[in-house]
Amino acid sequence: MNRESTNKNTNAIYLKVAIAEPILRKCLHGASFSEISLSVHKVIPTSELVLREYVFYLLDSSFITYNGIKKLYLIEPAGLDLLEIISVQADRRIVRYSDLTLKIE
């Protein structure tokens, strides 16, 4: 993961869309971590550590939530909005899908 400082007080996190999008899509109907992992690995090989970091940042930014009783990750309204933005950007084909990144501040 790349961490770049946009100014002295804010650290931005950059997430690859190729990893974040399958996580968000899998959370549409609720998913366990193992289900998310399988879904992401179908798109791009990723270590468990990197996957856990992505889930953490998506949780921390309120794109997804975790239901501890059911042990499921669920998408939030902000995550739905993010999926729509990703779809629009991918459709424009200005940049290759594998090069798309999300900047989270």
Largest sheet composition: 3 strands, antiparallel
- End-to-end separation in angstroms reads 14 Å
How would you sum up the global shape? globular
Order of helices and strands: EEHHHEEHE
Query: What's the gyration radius in Å?
Result: 14 Å
Strand content: 15-25%
Average pLDDT level: 88
What order do the strands of the largest sheet run in, or round the barrel if closed?
A: 1-2-5
Low-confidence stretches: 1-9
Helix content: 40-55%
* Class inferred from helices and paired strands: alpha+beta
Tally the beta strands.
5
**Number of helical regions:** 4
Give a description of the structure.
- The protein is 48% helix and 21% strand.
- The chain has 4 helices and 5 strands.
- By secondary structure, it is an alpha+beta fold.
- The radius of gyration is 14 Å and the shape is globular.
- A 3-stranded antiparallel β-sheet has the order 1-2-5.
- It has helices at 17-26, 33-43, 48-60, 77-92; strands at 2-5, 11-16, 64-67, 72-75, 101-104.
- The two termini are 14 Å apart.
- The chain has a domain at 32-99.
- Residues 1-9 have low confidence and may be disordered.
